């Protein structure tokens, strides 16, 4: 069958038409998914399946990264299998279009996220290593090192001594180096005692007048310091900040600080955030109640354990908070 020049032109025009329609549709779908993920994330396990769909899709990079961030927050072990699969994520067309650096960065982000699961991730990674053999991604082996647990170290040392794994010797050596690498200490901005009153006055004023993004970064550090220093007189300002700025970093920081200060007078206030729409606010409220040690909070924390769709991370924190209250001296 001969293909005429006219037929070839028609075929090329059809392909161009499909591209003109599909690329904008792909971009719009990516934006829509990225915007919905925050709502899905706040609903916990109930919408985890939708988050997984975006995570493993070929949507725009920002959408996939946002899905990964939501997975980190929910921290459900069922996500681990999807994360391992994404260590191999590849699409020849997109790799040609975007460049290989995007793929490598995304895969590395997935690898680093898996370390948050601790020993829960180890069986999944070991299963992957055993199933793929020499074809296993170096990222999976490095991921074992990033777990920084004793079982992970033993797995790597056994692999290093097994002749079968000699072709992967460099990857295993790097994983052991990662395991031995000390954790980087986070920088802390701590107030000096003589600075407390001045910064507290600024915080109280900002609670009434508002704050911009740059100011919020500064006040976030101030709030953390007020909590770690257990400044009792800051409690009123912290409660006001939590009420005034929902869904912002300073809100979660204020709830965390109230927990560190530990006044039982703030228990009822913090209880009001245990079922907040935002998953991070719920987490900080749960942890704060454990630190406050008020037995009156136990029934509320037990309700968290009974929720079907609450994030496993928050359920675990609720169980730990109950134990802290029960065993409080």
Q: What's the tally of helices?
A: 18
Outline the low-pLDDT stretches: 184-188
Strand content: under 5%
Look at the helices and sheets and give the structural class. mainly alpha
How many distinct domains?
4
The rough form would be described as globular
Structure explained in plain terms:
It is a single chain. The chain has about 325 residues and is mainly alpha-helical. The protein has 18 helices and no strands. The longest helix has about 40 residues, at about 5-40. It starts with a helix and ends with a helix.
Short synopsis of the structure:
The chain is mostly helical.
Question: Which labels suit this protein?
Answer:
18 helices; mainly alpha; 4 domains
Topology, element by element:
Layout: H1 5-42, H2 48-55, H3 61-74, H4 80-86, H5 92-98, H6 100-114, H7 121-132, H8 138-146, H9 150-161, H10 169-180, H11 196-209, H12 213-228, H13 235-244, H14 249-261, H15 267-271, H16 279-292, H17 298-306, H18 312-326
């Amino acid at each position: 069958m001969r293909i005429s020049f006219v037929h070839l032109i028609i075929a090329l025009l059809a392909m161009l038409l499909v591209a003109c329609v599909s690329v904008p549709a792909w971009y719009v779908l990516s934006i829509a998914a990225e915007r919905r993920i925050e709502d899905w994330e706040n609903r916990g396990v109930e919408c985890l399946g939708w988050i997984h769909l975006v995570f493993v899709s070929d949507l725009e990079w920002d959408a996939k990264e946002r899905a990964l961030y939501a997975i980190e927050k929910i921290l459900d072990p069922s996500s681990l299998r999807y994360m391992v699969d994404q260590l191999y994520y590849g699409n020849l067309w997109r790799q040609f279009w975007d460049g290989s650096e995007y793929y490598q960065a995304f895969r590395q982000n997935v690898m680093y996220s898996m370390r948050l699961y601790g020993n829960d991730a180890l069986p999944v990674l070991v299963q992957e290593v055993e199933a793929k053999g020499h074809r296993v991604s170096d990222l999976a082996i490095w991921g074992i090192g990033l777990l920084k647990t004793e079982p992970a170290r033993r797995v790597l040392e056994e692999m290093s001594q097994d002749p079968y794994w000699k072709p992967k010797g460099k990857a295993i050596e790097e994983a052991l180096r990662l395991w031995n690498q000390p954790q980087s200490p986070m920088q802390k901005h701590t107030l000096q005692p003589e600075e407390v009153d001045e910064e507290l006055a600024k915080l109280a004023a900002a609670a009434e007048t508002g704050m911009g993004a740059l100011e919020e970064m500064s006040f976030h550090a101030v709030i953390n310091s007020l909590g770690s220093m257990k400044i009792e007189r800051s409690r009123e300002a912290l409660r006001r900040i939590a009420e005034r700025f929902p869904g912002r970093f300073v809100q979660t920081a204020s709830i965390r600080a109230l927990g560190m200060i530990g006044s039982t007078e703030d228990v009822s206030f913090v209880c009001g955030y245990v079922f907040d729409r935002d998953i991070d606010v719920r987490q900080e409220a749960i942890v704060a109640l454990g630190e406050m040690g008020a037995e009156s909070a136990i029934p509320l924390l037990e309700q968290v354990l009974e929720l079907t769709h609450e994030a496993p991370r928050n359920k675990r924190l609720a169980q730990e908070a109950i134990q802290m209250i029960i065993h409080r001296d």
